[in-house]
Amino acid sequence: MAELRIQGLAKSYRDVRVLESIDLTIASGEFFTLLGPSGCGKTTLLRTIAGFQHQDRGEIVVKGERIDLKPAHKRDIGMVFQDYAVFPHLTVAENVAFGLKARSLPKSEIETRVAESLKMVRLDGYQSRLPAEMSGGQQQRIGLARAMAIRPTLLLMDEPLSNLDAKLRIELREDIRDIQRRLGITTIYVTHDQEEALAVSDRICVMDKGRVEQIGTPFEIYRHPVRRFAAGFVGTMNFISGTLKAGQLLIGSRSVHFPGADGTGPVELAIRPENVILSGSSPGAAIPLRGEVRKVTFLGREAHYTLGTEAGEIIAQAMDPSADFIAMEGQTIDIVLPIAKAALFDANGDLVSAGRP
Ligand SMILES: Nc1ncnc2c1ncn2[C@@H]1O[C@H](COP(=O)(O)OP(=O)(O)OP(=O)(O)O)[C@@H](O)[C@H]1O
């Protein structure tokens, strides 16, 4: 059974529509991420699920029961906030015990759960400290332990890693994922960081302007985007303007048959830098182009080349620059865009066709 089902959820602030009719279903134990740019409505959606604000229309159903009719404190939800929101005057243990006391659990049960939760987030031994004596990463661990201690049906996390430096972000995101897996707790995670979303999620919901653009596994979103927005927001993507004429794709002076694209009109060809062939040829249909190397970015394990072509600027990636391919700035090289690794989007941002090998 679906753990959480959201149907037709809409919300406006005064006259501004922030959530258009949102529909989504989340399975029990799933790590589900809302990913999108600032202002797309992720936080509003999360806070509406938590009950901190109310929708104008639509339903939120958990385990078959409408929770949107209940006040926030009766929704059985644990929440972790971007700014930690720990109580500064309470010790670590008191912070974690807070929700348990509010639920009037017996003292011994509270002690057991506090100890368990602190161990889980690796804060064993810090019971008597005050939050001010802890680092940002540790304070967020308190927030996580506090949310988990009540053993909620749903765990909601709103950009929990945004205030931490890059190294800590990766460390804590791994911990969050491990704990979530171990406990099998259904989690909704909000982030604007696409790499973070790819790393932790079972499924990602890409949002833009209050709408769901695509829902899928990280692999599906990265490899098979169905909307131009998702294609451009997750990972790096080249978009090359072209024209479709009854199945023939025209890019600059080149023309190639694009399978499954029978229409006519302006299109954009989307291809990832790692799929641009820098040396050699493509086994199937492809668009060959001449490219002037404008910039080389050497990153050790890989190198990125910015190429000026008749179809516009294209970024290409070589995975093993020392062994595979080396180009110098100013050089002109032949590149190939394999159709099997490309997708076509129309002027509305809808997928026209994705290349098939
Ligand atoms: N209380 C409010 N009153 C009026 N407008 C609001 C309110 N809260 C949010 N908004 C607006 O609603 C839109 C969506 O905001 P929301 O915080 O949900 O987006 P978000 O995707 O979470 O963005 P961010 O990553 O910046 O937090 C924004 O345009 C924001 O300015």
Automatic annotation (TrEMBL):
The keyword Chaperone does not apply. Belongs to the ABC transporter superfamily. Coiled coil: none annotated. It comes from Microvirga puerhi. Residues 4-234 form the ABC transporter domain. InterPro entries: AAA+_ATPase, ABC_SmlMolc_Importer, ABC_transporter-like_ATP-bd, ABC_transporter-like_CS, Mo/tungstate-bd_C_term_dom, NA-bd_OB-fold, P-loop_NTPase, Transp-assoc_OB_typ2. This is ABC transporter ATP-binding protein. GO terms for molecular function: ATP binding. Keywords: ATP-binding, Nucleotide-binding, Transport. The keyword Repeat does not apply. SMART domains: AAA. It comes from the Bacteria.
